[in-house]
Amino acid sequence: MTPPAALTRADLGIWLINLPRSADRRARMVAQLQALGLDYTLFDAVDGRAEWERLKSSVDLPAFRANVGREVLPGEIGCYHSHLGVWQALLASPHKAALVLEDDVVFHDDFLPALDLALAHADRWDMLKLNKIRAKFPVGQGALGAYRLNAFVGSFTGMGAYLVTRACAQDLLPALLPIRRPIDHALDRIDLRHFRHFALQPFPSHVDDGNQSTITGSGFAEVKKFPWYRRPRVYQNRLGALIAKGSHLLLGRIITPPAPGCTRSDR
């Protein structure tokens, strides 16, 4: 993928992912976006529960169980397809990059300056997270003004607010099906994907779902991992991924943008 030159908000499409039934969340996000003066497109989230019979053929269930150590949640498959759907909308648009938002984001006072700074340096990243769920063991990739660009050897998950370039979305889309992990875990395998998946820190936003997730339920009640003795392959896969990802980062291979079509098959 070829990094774009400096971008501005005029080059940016903004998509807000929201389940139509989640009216309260939508109202909170709309109020925040209007206060920031950001025009957006509402993207109706894929309802994994309602559409499970259609979606389940896109999941490699044995691989998912081996990689994650539990049964798949229909809501996370809907989430996965929602993000892919936004990327497809980006490719069908004239925009050079997308700001993708889930409906539980809280914007900080510095969000707009951070956004403009990130766009002005769009040649420095392919996907840039503006908040996180987990971000462990950073590996510095330089600075943007008062912010740091970081990659992570450990888990780097969450899809609440991020920037993705058109070229990155186009390159990644063919490699992300069938589904073998939640989407943020799949994107965390940068040793397979070979793209610059960074964070802008300090993060200019955070997520707050009030402990009422439309995917995992209240207090993660729907997440039921297999007993430890049924998860030996999970531990093996995680150790292998940590080694591969760490080697990829620490050898500096992430710094140079890859050639088009460089993503490798997942497992």
Automatic annotation (TrEMBL):
The entry lists its GO molecular-function terms as: transferase activity
Q: Which Pfam families match?
A: Glyco_transf_25
Give all residue intervals belonging to the Glycosyl transferase family domain: 14-185
Q: Which branch of life, at top level?
A: Bacteria
Task: Return the InterPro entries for the record.
Answer: Glyco_trans_25 (IPR002654)
Keywords (alphabetical) are: Transferase
Query: What protein name does the entry list?
Result: Glycosyltransferase family 25 protein
Q: Which organism is it from?
A: Pseudotabrizicola algicola
